[in-house]
Amino acid sequence: MKTIPNNVVIGKPLVSLKALGVEATETTVKFTFDQLRNDQGNVFLPHVLKLIGVFDSTNECRRINDQQQKSSKFNKDANLNLWRNLEDPEFTEFKIGKKVFCLIVGSEE
Fold it and tell me: Which residue from 49, 86, 26, 31 is spatially nearest to 17, judged by alpha carbons?
């Protein structure tokens, strides 16, 4: 089983990781926007989640997202929608099953 990192950083964070509460002992994976862009020039969140090992395929991500969106238990926060492009800077904590991690999207430098 692939180990899920505690933090996924895309681009250059607007503030330091220390200011965001990221500790030195946590595993952090860093990507540039160019590493993650698809053919249309977008950074697609399901592709990122598949790449880090949260899901085995983007179809599995879509299925889980549909279940979460239909459930009244989940907050309807737009940042928790898994089926989207990453366009703006954000700091979002995800809990998918037993997997908990933070997504930090910064600027393109």
Answer: 26
| SS3 state at 29 | strand
| Residues belonging to the chain | 109
Tens digits of residue pLDDT in 27-36: 999 999 999 9
Give CA–CA dist 62/68, Å, rounded. Answer: 10
Please answer whether residues 94 and 1 qualify as being in contact, where contact means their C-beta atoms are separated by less than 8 angstroms.
Answer: no
Task: Name residue, tokens 């990453």.
Answer: 86
Residue 17's CB is within 10 A of a number of other CB atoms, namely 17
Composition of the chain by helix, strand, coil, percent to 5: 25, 25, 50
Q: What is the pTM assigned to this prediction?
A: 0.88
CA distance 84 to 82: 6
Q: Are 109 and 102 contacting, i.e. CB atoms less than 8 angstroms apart? A: no
